[in-house]
Amino acid sequence: MYDRGIILTGLGAFLVVVLLPFWWGAAAGQPGADPPDLPAATAQPCVMEPAYMRAAHMDLLNRWRDEVVRNDARFFTAADGYGLESGRERDEKSLSLTCLRCHDKEQFCDRCHDYSGIAPTCWKCHVVPPGGE
Amino acid sequence: MDQSRRTFLRTAGIAVLGISGGGSYVAARAIAAGQHDGGKTAAGVRYALAIDTQKCAAQHGCTACITACHAEHNVPAVDVPEREIKWIWKEEAEHALHEYFDDYTSDELRRREIPVLCNHCDNPPCVRVCPTQATYKRADGPVMMDMHRCIGCRYCVVGCPYGARSFNYGDPREFLPNGEPTNARYPTRSKGVVEKCTLCTERLARGLRPACVEACPAGAMLFGDLEDPGSEIRAFLQTNFTVRRKAEVGTRPHVHYKL
């Protein structure tokens, strides 16, 4: 092979540049941060099971959005009655009024979204009730 | 086939007449059908507003309906006139209902300030021009906005003959009183969407009347179901002569004014 030295040096430089984010992370001592340990909801069980919410809360919120705005179907009852204990008869399909009643936006939503590198646009309009209530 | 120029032209002419005549007939039928559905709704409910402008005027400069509405829906107070956001505001009767005025109408009636807002038309031009169906007609009357779908093209702003729609040129949260939403139950809007009166659909869902109706100290605003023959608004329209803004353009508006 002609010019073996030049080619190998070039390949090496290429790998260094392409994998720069990994070197950067290793140098900063954060080889893949652990998922944040989210605080549990303050009170009642959630409207759906935690496993479902973890995987698909955005689908649920999108469905709620369409149902409320387009069909005026504003109240939610889980099929299996989950989340309907503690005297709650029905929940409003509302991020601000139902989800944030138990979850703190900064401690719960934001921490995981920041970790995942996601910036949902919900908060540009939807209000965080004062005092986390 | 033997065909002279004359017979060809004759046949072609008859064919063109036949096609265009038939087309016009179909179009006329469609237009007539559209004009005669009389506002009957699929829901069997037709929410509307009636405003007694005499009772309203007797309050002299009252803005309770505007204040209540704008606080309820976190409507930003933008000072710049061409960028202001309004769901309900006051207009001189001569401007809002000019077609009912002539040179000899009394000055009092001309200058009478009347509340104007979205007319929740049966045939809303804003809905027809919206390319994303972000604004749509609900079966029970209100013309609704889906802020999630609005792309900010402002066709509806141009389409509305009543100027009832406002565009958010900037982040509306910057113009909220004290920088905070006045009603934490209701979302604000984001930059780049159009907003307007929604006839308080979120309050109707909870069994409440629209905020403006509730706030009026004179009881000058009536809210009700036009399809219910026993409703208060039907009785009002039966016993008073009322007019609507620009009804002649065919929008079939449903805010009724008693002058």
Structure description:
The complex is a heterodimer of chains A (133) and B (259). Chain A has helices at residues 4-18, 20-27, 50-71, 95-102, 105-116; strands at 75-76, 91-92. In chain A, 12% of the residues are buried. By secondary structure, chain A is mainly α. In chain B, 31% of the residues lie in helices and 15% in strands. Chain B has 10 helices and 10 strands. In chain B, a hairpin with a 5-residue loop joins strand 4 (135-137) and strand 5 (143-145). The longest helix of chain B has 31 residues, at 5-35. Chain A binds chain B through residues 65, 69-70, 72, 74, 96-97, 121, 124-127, 129-130, and chain B through 74, 136, 138, 144, 146-148, 180-181, 184-191, 201-202, 205.
Quick recap:
The complex is a heterodimer of chains A (133) and B (259). Chain A is mainly alpha-helical and 133 residues long.
Give structural attributes:
heterodimer; A: 133 residues; mainly alpha; two-stranded antiparallel sheet; 49% helix; B: 259 residues; alpha+beta; 10 helices; 10 strands; 31% helix
